[in-house]
Amino acid sequence: MEFFIISMLNGLSYGLLLFMLSSGLTLIFSMMGVLNFAHASFYMLGAYVGYSVAQAVGFWPALVIAPLVVGALGALFERISLRKVHKYGHVAELLITFGLSYVILDLIQLIWGRIALEFRPPEILQGPALTLINNSVKGLSVLWGAAPAELCSSADAAVRVVCSPFPATRGFMMLVALVMLMAVWLLLTRTRVGLVIQSALTHPEAVESLGHNVPRIFMLVFGAGCALAGLAGVIGGSTFLTEPAMAATLGPVIFVVVVVGGMGSLSGAFLASVLIGVIQTFAVAFDYSVASMAHQMGVPLSDAALNNSFVKLTLSQIAPILPYLFLVLILIFRPKGLLGTREG
Amino acid sequence: MKFALKFVAATVAIVCATSAMAQKGETVKMVRIDPLTGLLGPVGVSQLKGYQFFAEKFSGAGNPAGVKFEVTGIDNKLSPTESLNALKAAIDQGARYIIQGNGSSVALALTDAVTKYNERNPGKEVIYLNDAAVDPDLTNSKCSYWHFRFDADTSMKMEAMSSFMETQKDIKNVYILGQNYSHGVQVAKYAKETLARKRPDIKIVGEDLHPLAQVRDFAPYIAKIKASGADTVITGNWGSDLSLLIKAANENGYTGKFFTYYAGVTGTPTALGTNGAGRVYQVAYNHYNMGGQMDKWMKEFHDKYKDDFYTGATIRIFQTLGAAMAKAKSTDPVKVAAALEGIKVNSFNGEVEMRKADHQLQQPLYITVWQKADKKYPYSPEGTGMTLAPVMEYANYVSSTPTSCQMKRPS
CATH assignment of B155-284+364-399? Predict the structure, then answer.
C-alpha cells in the first residue's frame, strides 16, 4: 500500500512538472498558433538563470527573478524575430523557434559549461515533506516532516516497519504547479486581460479596432508562456539535475503532452501530463512481459520463444517509450486529443 | 693507435647505445576517446586530466624507454558511432595509441574497428588500450590482438564481490539493477551465476535494466526496490546513473546495502554523503588509500585540479607501455603489442601481469566500504569527510577467471 501511495505521489509530482512546462507551450499555441520548438530550451534557461541568481541572492528570490528574466527574453525574441516572420506563415515560425533551441543550447554551454551543475534546493526543502510509516502491527500512518528514528525501527524482530519519506522538493513542485494552474485559469477566464487575449485569438481585427494593441498582446502572451517554462526550470533544475541535456530529454515529452491533451487545451494538457507522469512511474514497477503473461494464462511457449528478446521485454524496460506509444495511438484514434476542440 | 682504438670503441659504444634506445626521446601520441559532455561528461573530463597529469610524470626519465607521452581527448558523447569518427580523427592526427574506457558498448565497436583498420593498413597499426570497459566479451568471444584491458572485467569483479558476500550472512534478498546495455546485462548475468554458486540461499528478489544515462529520476525504481523487500542492491551503474540512484535512495529512505563497481567515480561521493556510511561497498582494483607514492600523487593531483584521482589504470597504462617500449626498443605498435603480451610490471600495489591469452590485466582486487575518513584512511573525495576504506583484498589468483579467447595473432 505504501508502495502505491509513494508511486502515486512520485507520478503526480512528475506529471505536474510536465504540466508546468506544457501549460506555457499550449498557452502560446492556443493564443498565437505558434508551435514553440524552443519551449524546453526556455525551461533549461530558467534552470540555469535560477542557478546563477540562487548563487548570488538565494533560492527564493531566484524563484521569482529567473522566470521574469526568461519571460523578458521570450518577449524580446517575439518582438525582434518571431513577429517578423509571422507573415510568412506557420512553417517559418516553426523553423525559427527550432533554430532558437540550438542557439540557446550552445549559448548555455558557452556560459555555464557542458557538465551538470549542482543546483541545491534550499535547506527547508531538503528533508521529507511527509513520511509514510507502515507498521505490520499498527498499520499505515502518515507523519508530516521526517519521522524520528525510533518510529522507523522496531525492537521486536517480528514487527516489520517500513518508513517511506516523500521529498519536500517534490511536494513543493506539486504545490507550485497547482497554484500556477489556478492562477492561469483565473487570469484567462475571470479578468479583462484574459478576455482581451481570448478575443484577440479569434477576432484580432475586431480587438484591434477596439483600440487594443494586438501585436503587443501576442508579445506578452509569448513572454508569459516562456516565464512559466522558466519557473518550471528553476524547480525542475533544483529537484533533478541542471545540465545541457535537460531540454532535449523533456522536450519530446511535453509535445506528447500537448498532442495527447489536445492542441491548445489547458485542461487537456493538465489531464495528459498527470496521466503520462503516473503511467510512466507505475510502468517502472511492473515486470510483466509477453512471456510472463503467456505463463499466467497457461499458454506454453517454446524455449526459443522464451529467449526471444521481444518476448522477454518487460513493461518496466519499455517505460521510457510509453509516452510516445501513447502519442501514436492518440494520433490514430483521436487526432484532436483527449480534450481538444480544434479539428485537424 | 691507442687513441684510434679508443675512438672506435667509443663510437661503437655510442652507436650500440643509441640503437638500443632508438625509441628514446620519441613522442608517443595518445588519444583518449571518451564522453567529455553530457550526463557522463564529468567522469571523462576528470579522467582526461588524470592522463595528462600522469603523462607528464611518466615522460622522459619517468619510464624505462625514455619516451615522451602526450595525451589529448576527443569527445565521443558516449556514442559508438561518434567513437568511430573520433577514431578516424585520432588516426589522422597521427595517434597510434587509442585509449577508451567508459561504456562497453563503445569498447565493442572500437575493438572491432581497430582490428579491421589494422588488417587493412599494415604498417600503420593502432593499439587500443581499454581502461574501464568491463564487458567480459572483450577478452573472450570478441577478443582482439590489438585490445588490452587494464581494468578487471565483470567476471573478475563479481568473483571478488561474491566471495565477500559469501561472508556477509545478513544478506538474504538481493536486487540487481543495471544500465540497459552490454555492461548492465553482464553484471546481472555474472551476479546471478556467482551467487548461485557461492550463496545459493540468497534470493534474487528483483532485477531491472534502465536506459543508460537517460534516467533523471530514480524514485520509481527505489520505490520498487523497497517494495521487493531487498536488503541489498547489486549495481554496475556508474556516473550520474549511480549518483542519482543513491540520491533517490537517500531521499526516499531506502536503508539497504549497495554493492557497486563505481562508488568512487566523480559525483557519486557527493551523492553518498554521510548517509551511505557503512552500507555502500565497492569492488575495484584500487581505492583512495593505497598508501606510498600513490597518496602523494593523489594529493598533488588534488592540489592541481581540485579533483580526485581514482582511475588507477591510467598509471598502469603508462607503466606497462613504458616497459613494453623498452623491451621492444621501439614505439612501433606492432612491436609494442608483441612486447605487451605477458608483460609483468611492478605497479602501485605489487606485480600485475598482462595475460597473454586474452590481454586481460591480472591484478589484485579490493572490497571497500564507504565510511568516515579517519587517521588510517584519511583521503576524502569531493570534500565529503568520508572515504572508501578497504575491508578485503583479493590476490590476483582469486579473481582470475578462465578465458575462452582464441587470439588471432598477426603472422
Answer: 3.40.50.2300
pLDDT tens, residue by residue, B215-273: 888 999 999 999 898 999 999 999 889 988 998 998 888 989 999 999 999 888 988 88
- Name the nearest CA neighbour of B32 among B2, B1, B72, B62: B72
B23-152+292-362: which CATH architecture?
3-Layer(aba) Sandwich (3.40)
Which sequence spans correspond to the domains of chain B? 23-152+292-362, 155-284+364-399
Helices and strands, counts by H and E, chain A = 17, 3
What is the tens place of the pLDDT at every residue in B336-372? 999 999 999 999 988 999 999 999 999 999 999 999 9
Mean pLDDT value across chain A: 87
Give B365's strand partners.
Answer: B394
| Three-point CA angle A61, A62, A65, nearest 5° | 85
How far apart (Å, rounded) are the C-alpha atoms in residues A119 and B175?
30
Best residue in B40, B222, B226, B252 for a mutation probing chain A (most A CBs within 10 Å): B252
Residue A6 has its nearest CB partner, among B45, B223, B267, at: B223
**How many residues in chain A?**
344
Chain B residues bordering chain A (beta-carbon distance below 8 Å): 36-39, 41-42, 45, 180, 206, 208-211, 214-217, 219-221, 223-224, 226-227, 240, 244, 251-253, 267, 270
Whether residue A266 is contained in a domain is answered as yes
- Determine the average pLDDT of the residues in A151-175: 81
Shared-domain flag, residues A146 and A262: no
Confidence at residue A114, expressed as pLDDT on a 0 to 100 scale? 75
- Domain total for chain A? 2
Does A10 fall in a domain?
A: yes
